[in-house]
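Lab meeting minutes (informal)
Scribe: AK
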Amino acid sequence: MLFRNTNRLTILVTLVALCCIVIMFFLGFWQLDRKQQKEARLAQIESRQDANPLYLSDVVNDPDAFVDFPLQITGELRDELFYIDNRLKNGVAGYEVLVPVITDYDMVMVNLGWVPGTGSRDELPRVLLPFTQQHLGRIYVPQDNTLINETNFNYGRFPVLMQQIDFTEIEQHLGRDVLPFTLRLDPSPDANFVRDWQVVVMAPERHLGYAIQWFGLGIAGLTVFLLTAIKTMQGRQD
């Protein structure tokens, strides 16, 4: 009975060890894949940096195909502010501020940029809207964070505090359709907002570093496993 239990324990330990080694190698390859994705995105941004500004008629049917391209729209900023919470700049907590602009192709949500918080989430910072009707920026399609499910049900009451850019919720507040992308305004010396847009949060080199770490752990785990297995087999032969 003791021999049988020992064999079962050995098999279980072996399976757990192999699973851990496979997971570590998988995470290493996943980090390499993320590195390639980031490099492709940075190359895309670079290639579209100096492109001529597009107009809504060019992109309205397929905004995803024109991410990072410059876009110029015309319209008046409406005084219906959306504050996107938990945005950090240099360790300072603040908000990104979005406002709708009425165009010939429904509303476009314009991201004015970042402003610091007041120190209390119960008091949103006051902002001054630009007076111009010409708005130039970059097309950006935000990704949903499935871990965030908080919803602001005070529809129609402004300003609106949100945890992420959710077009369905924005439409509920505005009572009309909005186009499924945002316009991140270009930096301006007279703007009251910070507009140093960070498109890629983690540099490709960081992903490479993580991949090397995971591969190193996998190789170390595999080495220990093989040495232990060889030693065990030699012990049984003796």
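Next up, CB showed the second protein from the same session:
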Amino acid sequence: MFSHIMVGGNDLERSKKFYDAVLGTLGAGPAMVDGHRIFYITPTGIFSVSQPIDGAPATYGNGATIGFACATSEQADAWHAAGVANGGTTCEDPPGVREGGMGKMYLAYLRDPDGNKLCALHRMG
């Protein structure tokens, strides 16, 4: 359904450090830098951070969350720990199991250094 997801960032070096660590736990290699943008290219899609082309500061979306699929709850925990260790902040409830209409899931939430809300999700079958 999606070809790529792009979020805004104000400091590409800071964003690259954060996302290299976080997405590295999911098997993604370091970002490719292209001027005012960085790209993580995987077989299932592209994630990118861009300095806004209009020159205004990047801001996060209120109510927006970007979810990353994890193979295990341990991978979600590693993702969360890498994020906190590299400038992210934890948000929502602590990482753990949630049950609801979508079934049993293990979720971990972070905000990146620019405030974008992220989630690591492992569907527990």
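CB comment: Residues 4-52+64-123 form a domain with the 2,3-Dihydroxybiphenyl 1,2-Dioxygenase; domain 1 fold (CATH 3.10.180.10).
No objections, moving on.
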